[in-house]
Amino acid sequence: MKFSVTQENYTMDAQVEVVGKDLFIEVTGGDTPHIGTVTTLTKETEMQTIRYPSHDGRLHKDDVLARRIGQVIQNELPGSCTITAGVHVNHISKKQIMVSGQMSQNLGEQIKTWLQKTDFDAPEPIYYSDNENPQ
Predict the structure, then answer these.
(1) Alpha-carbon span 86 to 76, nearest angstrom
(2) What's the CATH class of domain 2-112?
């Protein structure tokens, strides 16, 4: 599934891939999409983020977008969720920075609505009991 929002002359996209009951969400946009951060979460666990260095050695800040989306969808997650984020707008304006939070909130709401309407009918894994071993 792909979700998009456009404000202040740029677009932010969220491509959602379902893997069993888990979600992989790729958030990109602007002039130079990339992977700046990786954020992980489940319904029961806190978000964790890895921030990659940018061209000048500073760490990317795209987790601000991923965390906003994660906060919106967390209670609806059927399994684990990994969000990569990388949005770069050349010579971004203060107004474009300001609306980025609203844009990621909007993407989160779109994904949340989709999650509420989607049946994640993946088979449950089968594990050995404590008394069993592989043969």
Answers:
(1) 24
(2) alpha beta
Q: Decide: 44 and 19 in contact? Cβ < 8 Å.
A: no
At 80, is the pLDDT very low, low, confident or very high (cuts 50, 70, 90)? very high
Distance between CA 57 and CA 37 in Å, rounded?
Answer: 14
Alpha carbons 32 and 6: distance in angstroms, whole number: 15
- DSSP letters of 116-127? HH----PPPP--
Domain residue ranges in the chain:
2-112
Global pTM? 0.93
**Alpha carbon of 50 to those of 26, 87, 122, 130, 133: distances in Å?**
15, 16, 29, 35, 36
Q: Identify the CA nearest to 16 among candidates 75, 62, 81, 79.
A: 81
Token representation of residue 4: 């998009």
